[in-house]
Amino acid sequence: MLGVRLRARRYPERVFTRRRLAIAAAPLAGLGALLVLPLLIVRVKTGSRLSNHPEHVGHRQVALVPGAGLTAGGRVSWFLRDRLDAAVELYQLGKVDGLLLTGDNHSTTYDEPSAMRDYAVGRGVPAAAITLDYAGFNTYDSCYRARHIFGVSEAVVVTQSYHLPRAVYLCSSVGIDAEGLGVADWGHVPTTRMVRYQARELLADAKALWDTDVIGRDPRYLGRHEKLNLQPVNG
After folding, report:
1. What are the C-alpha distances in Å from 29 to residues 15, 37, 115?
2. Fewer CB within 10 Å, N- or C-terminus of the chain?
3. Closest among 133, 110, 114, 162 to 63, alpha carbons compared
4. Secondary structure letter of residue 222 according to DSSP
């Protein structure tokens, strides 16, 4: 009987502990749902427009390539080089009529777009088919300026696959008929770095929806309309 009474006393304590755990976990579950929902929205809306194969991409005006960092010597990083290689292949296949290279030129000693142009020219793309955007400080700014400064109406966005859905979503949100070509990331980029990038993408997707669907923010810099350089490979 004693044993029975002892078990009877413990049972309410276990129930109370489970309730406290459930109450404590509820806000975390809600936060998780808020973070995952934007990711799902972005991927559902862009899934049919993403590809990993250049030959499967339809023809568009330009390949839009966002910047991804320079080396200490001012050359494109290997991460950015992968994007540029894919964009050059699109141009050589006749899938695009030019490249829009958009990146950070916040100082005279840091010039992503010019380094990107030098690399693409070195790979055989004529300078007359390349347009530089020196104020593409982030993906949203790059997409917005592509539409409103350079007059891009259709583009193939070229970036790593983890980043591609958001980039295509942002370009589409500002009025660009956008497809996406993904370049290798998982299995090619160090795993520890990819885990960090993928986790950051949860917050970035939420910000993308906020910027486009809630506040419709302007980019950091706008300015006057600029010419889009196009020269078809067989033109």
Report:
1. 20, 12, 44
2. N
3. 133
4. -
